Amino acid sequence: MKHEELVKRCVKLAERNVRDGQAPFAAIVTRGGEVVSEAVNDGKATFDPTAHGEIRAIQMAGTKLETTDLSDCELYTNCEPCPMCLAAIHWSGIKQVYYGLSIGQQAEFDEMPQELYEAFRTGEHSVKLHDYSGKVDGAAPFRLEERE
Amino acid sequence: MKHEELVKRCVKLAERNVRDGQAPFAAIVTRGGEVVSEAVNDGKATFDPTAHGEIRAIQMAGTKLETTDLSDCELYTNCEPCPMCLAAIHWSGIKQVYYGLSIGQQAEFDEMPQELYEAFRTGEHSVKLHDYSGKVDGAAPFRLEERE
């Protein structure tokens, strides 16, 4: 299938997900022109804040292909990935992503992804991070891993 | 339990995870001083590239509390969260995070989280994003959601 058709399929899957009472997001992972996984955002059904379409499609692809290295795969999504999903794409090794709506365009409906990108750009997060590295030996598990 | 004890518990869980053949990461979600969920990175076992300790702890907390809104919870982790996990924390609503090893300190063992933060700061990602918004109606699922 062509890139455009696969992005359109994500849009259709996202519309079906809305009719099913879920959020308007879907994603597809392909390898060598074949669909490996299709997934939707099922956060409302599963109470999982991380249940974005891209996360689900990557999880399913890893399980199906029995590897966390998806560097020979591509990802399609109806919306440009949020920072969580883009970072997940980095971890998966996927290098090519095709989307149907930009973060800027999506802001008309949901400003959160754009605000998140801005927080990562400036480093000013609403989440408060408390550094306890002076009080605990946080490197111990890494040293143990090197010895094992 | 005090913050420091909970970070230390994450370090212990991460060490146990290494001895179990997994990656050196663990996280805990609490609410009102009580532990809601404890989780480890189980990516090697599940072939899931997104299986970081924080992601797993948030997923488990959402399922247990039957809500995606964890804004009254706190998160503890042996390592400062990577961008995927920090964005997941944003989506969960968690506002307080306590960690035992900074991203800079972790770079001695794994440079990827630091490199990812730098990519988000500059906007220069190794992932190639292809914008098909001029060719597909990517906003259709959002308009449908507004009508439903």
Automatic annotation (TrEMBL), chains A, B:
Supply the Pfam families for this chain: dCMP_cyt_deam_1 (PF00383)
Keywords annotated in UniProt: Metal-binding, Zinc
An example Gene Ontology biological process: purine nucleoside catabolic process
CDD domains in the record: nucleoside_deaminase
Task: Tell me where in this chain the CMP/dCMP-type deaminase domain is found.
Answer: 1-123
- GO MF term (any one): zinc ion binding
| PANTHER family listed in its UniProt record | CMP_DCMP-TYPE DEAMINASE DOMAIN-CONTAINING PROTEIN, CYTOSINE DEAMINASE FAMILY MEMBER
* Record protein name field: Nucleoside deaminase
